[in-house]
Amino acid sequence: MASVELPARGRLERELDGIVEDNRFTIAVVFPAVGAVTLLASAEALLPGPLNFNPYLLLFGVAVMRLPLVAGLAPLLTRKAAAGLLVLCLYTYAIEFVGVHTGYPYGSFGYGVDLGPMLGGAVPAALPLFFIPLVVNAYLLCLLLSGRVARSAAIRVPAVALTVVGMDLVLDPAAVSVGFWAYDGGGAYYGVPWLNYLGWTLSATVAVTLLDAAFDRKEILQRLENCRFMLDDLVSFVLLWGAVNAYFGNWIPAALAVGYGYGLWRTDRFDFPER
């Protein structure tokens, strides 16, 4: 029987799926493990000067860990979804720009590590690479775990927004501990002020609403059913930031990371089978 040639986009999506499938363990486990060691070694000034918090190595590692999410979403990227993601990117830059210059809604803070090129000298150009995956991973996890309850937007959006805030309860203390950024005057939660989480509640709610409007929930659920690696980026998140928090004795964030790991285990899709 003659094979049917896929359109160019279909071929690229299939090739990307294959790359991720063939390297799941390396992407989702080895990269975050190496990343955690590298970040901790940089924080302790154990690496040669140019390698300490090297922004390009950092961005490369983050980009690789994002591959499962990119491959998982690629077949769902309609014009509407692409427009929604563009708006979400612009929103991410805008609220960060306001935050850096006014101290609201996250609290007054400054970057302590070079995160690559900056827009306007104030906001990392790669910011969407850090923020948007948190929102998408939280959205996917909630869809998988909540089942029929997630059919209601009135429940779905707040639940995902709170899940995003929970992820920042893991991320921010670790980032402060390694020196990525610091809040003026510190904060009660491992150097992070509570105002930051009020700000994250706002920004997460807006971001989740945009994401929910951009993508077709039924298509996402179908893709999740057929794509076992779609949440591997969240595995990387748990391993990387859980390890960093444990190293610095940030036990509440470390325990929260374990909680997200348990949520992932409940999805029953992380056996990393050999192909």
Automatic annotation (TrEMBL):
Please list every transmembrane segment annotated in the UniProt record, as residue ranges. Answer: 25-47, 53-74, 81-102, 122-145, 157-182, 194-215, 236-262
Keyword Transmembrane helix in annotation: yes
Assigned keywords, A-Z: Membrane, Transmembrane, Transmembrane helix
- Does the keyword section mention Membrane? yes
InterPro entries for this protein: BABR_hydratase (IPR053540), CruF (IPR017823), CruF-like (IPR007354)
One of its Pfam families is Caroten_synth
The protein's name: Carotenoid biosynthesis protein
Source organism per entry reads: Natronomonas aquatica
